[in-house]
Amino acid sequence: MTPESDPAPIEFGRFTLLPLRRQLLAQGQPIELGGRAFDVLMALIETTGNVLSKDDLMSRVWPGKIVEENSLEAQISLLRKALGADRELVRTIAGRGYQFTGPIGTGPIRTGPAVAATPAITTSPTNLSQSVSALFGRDVDLREIAELVTAHRLVTLVGPGGIGKTQLGLETARHLQPMFPDGVWVAELAPLADPELVPVCVAGAMGLSLPSNASSPQSIAMAVSRQRLLLVLDNCEHVIDAAARMADALLRASAGASVIATSREPLRVEGEYVYRVPALEVPAADVEHTQDLLRTGAVKLFIARAAAADPRFALDDRGAAMIGAICRRLDGIPLAIELAAARAGALGIEALAARLDDLFKLLTGGHRTALPRQQTLRATLDWSHGLLSDSERVALRRLAVFAGSFGLESASAVVADSELTSEDAADLLADLVAKSLVVADVHHATAQYRLLDTTRAYALEKLMQANEREQFTRRHAEHYRQLFERAAAESETQPTAQWLAAYRRHLDNLRAALDWAFSAAGDGEIGAALTIAAGPLWMRASLMDECRRRVEQALAAAGAGRDPRRDMELYAALAAALLYTKGPVLEIHSAWKRTLEIAERLNDGDYRVRALWGLWVDGLTSGDFRSSLDFAQQFSLHVQVEADRGVGDRMTAIALLYLGELSAARERIELMLSRYVAPVHSSHVIRFQFDQLVMARMTLAQILWLQGLPDQAMRAADINVEYAQSI
Hints:
Blueprint lengths: L9 E3 L2 E4 L4 E4 L2 E3 L3 H12 L4 E2 L1 H8 L7 H15 L6 E4 L3 E4 L4 E2 L32 H13 L2 E5 L6 H12 L7 E5 L9 H9 L10 H7 L6 E5 L5 H14 L4 E6 L8 E5 L13 H5 L2 H13 L7 H13 L4 H14 L1 H6 L4 H4 L14 H10 L3 H10 L8 H8 L6 H13 L4 E3 L6 E3 L2 H13 L3 H22 L5 H8 L3 H11 L6 H10 L1 H6 L3 H15 L5 H18 L4 H17 L2 H18 L2 H14 L3 H17 L3 H13 L8 H6 L3 H15 L3 H17 L1
Parallel strand pairs: 9-12, 9-13, 10-11, 11-12
Antiparallel strand pairs: 1-2, 1-8, 2-3, 3-4, 5-7, 6-7, 14-15
């Protein structure tokens, strides 16, 4: 950008606004104004005289984000505080929004009490190269990082390899160049093998003429102690201690210096602000419209790189959907997306998507001028892996057995052994998070962790090379068997919403454990036990198709007859799942009969009444109402819990209703309602599917209607709806 093309200073009253410097002057003196407050002021000035609604203002200041209205009010308050006696320049229009009321003019920058007719912006010295490619999907990140560098003197961009830290750091430096009259300097540390060379590299980047034997962090800092400059320390992770000493010395010696560092872990220097660089936005799995797919940064980057690699690249709706899926699989990592897009011309989108399981052979062929570790996905991960301690490498490869998110308890249970204690595992997990190899989500009461798909695929290779995959996939499956057995017990006492929030997040690991258990190298006994334990989750999450498939797998893998109790539990789960996935089929009756036979042989009262309930339902759905009545009466004879007695009364009443015996049916359902006892536990809902009070009142309303009492039936129905909504 040339000085002639820079936006002119904006004057109003005693103030001068410098748009490019993002600075507000009062009579030539800088005023402290945060980045968001500055954006509010710019938006209001651009619409001077007009009222800008709160929604419009928030969409300009926080583009693409959902924020509370009080966030805007806080920025307005900060802006008015900065304006001081002229706070009325920002006017609140009740019920409509905000208005800027000052007269606007343009002119030279005021450098003090006197006005000097100097150029609006002067070009500061730099060794920054010109940007050669556009950034996609990074507008918000650039703005946030620029604000942080304005407010904090040391900002470290942290993230895994290939996430785009360097590009973001350099682009931020280009944007902020006018703020640093004494220079913006980039020290590229990646080529260094010796940490002692960091000061020499920094001195060379700044153009300082210091003897090589006198290049120390302190000597460099003293040489620029009076300057207002920005230093970018790029790729610090392999010389992290030396980079930290350099940044610390510079910031202590020079009040006008700022530092942007890029690294896979923080520098851990006093005053450091860490910005964890996010992946590019990827489209959600349920996004179908091409225009919605094309709005995400990851898809934009893929298309741009694919078109650059092959000018004949063309996109249709199906191709856009597959590109969205590819970007999701690659976790929105820019390097991985660029490498994949480069292959699109040779393979085609469909073949590329089909071959993504072979990530490390596929994702090669980066720019020849890039660092070697940025030319293939494997090289990038090799670089990160090489910087780990032996213990960190052990922990990383063992964590690869987790699919999806996992908690600290699960990580410690699976990773720890005679080499690593549980405390060691927790510390190593924290270290891997710091080094950007494990992603942490701390927005919930219990922190959750996960490996990116690319990192997990790499770590699984290391696990196999260490001959540990069998041992730790088995340990993973056994851990989740124990976890879901505990969950099944808690399902009887915890509210459904609370229970689901705690256990639904384990679905990915449940599926991975079952996939292993039912594989040729797995253990069918563990798979069967885990399938039984997971029953409440599938039921409460309405995943009955999945439940049926897994139960059928378990029965086939474990072999019927070897463990009667396990068979009984599996047949009961199969019958319930079949009812909700295939409707009334002969297999349901057979499964419940097998359950009943085994329960009677084992004298298991719980599963006896479960089976009788199932056979009662089967009789109703198949039209055999007499047998249904018989099973209901048997159920009432065998109940062991008082709350279940009411279940038997309701079952009998419904069978009588279906047989047309309305008076007897009404008498039985009113008896049930008169002696209804709310269950202490919720297990009756798991066993008998529904809330019994709701079902009983519904049955009463049906009977009253059929008896020719519509007003009473409607009142009963209204009461039932109100109760059902309340629970």
